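Sorry to interrupt, but I need a hand with the structure work. I would like you to pick a protein and set down its sequence and fold. Please put the record directly below this note.
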Amino acid sequence: MNSTHHISLSGIIKIQPQIMKIGCSTPVKARPLMLRSCILQMQAQTRLPDTHLILINGVDALDYDSRTVTDLINQRVQFKAYPYDANTSELTVQCLKIMLEQGVDLFFKIDSDDMYYCNYIETFLEEIGEEKLAQTEKAFAANLVDQLFITAQDNTAVKIKRAHFQRGLGLPPHEIEKGIKVGAPPTYVFNRKAAQLIVDNADNPKYRHLTYDDAMMRNLLFDHGVVIDQITTKEPIFGYVRHGSNISSIKPHSKATTGSNNES
């Protein structure tokens, strides 16, 4: 783990939040203008991520036209290519694998088409609290609730309203019955233990058929005893944007593969 540690008076090894290695991940297929907005939002954070992984997916990923973001690429932004048609579960797992190998301590799932305030990461860290951030032996995951829902369909006026997200974007009855908790799907945050748990178990047939990453992760985590924390902020720091097509890639990828980590 690439972090500086200190011993608290209680004798527990703690990771100081300000020096944790924070990684953001954004799988994307096409959407060049949305990707530009996404990268700019992360570069405007009051607590900058240490790395922002952009995973370009699709059979033409190696030929991705990055001219809309060329001026934004710096040491904190990395592009990787995954040249397969993949579902969102597979893409999220690939992102977690890459960032685990890079020694990331805290993982932020960032969607290319949503709105993240400049204080998003900093506020999230404050709301999670130092005690949970310091926990390295127990899996931890969180989602935001009580945020904004933004509708931008066609060329009509944008509509903004408050939304609870207490059941994400909707849970099926059997998941409600099980007691699964979740929040806004594009606001997942994990520690290393939870990220490793997802990577190690996502290929289990019990979860492999769940091609949407939100469904896969909330079920997998719940089955392994991880209850997703629902975090409410004093003011919204996130907006879910509903537009014409909210899925970058939904085709299931049948080949078992580790993919490509080539820079695109």
Q: What stands out?
A: The helical segments are 32-43, 88-101, 120-128, 130-133, 173-178, 192-201, 205-208, 213-223.
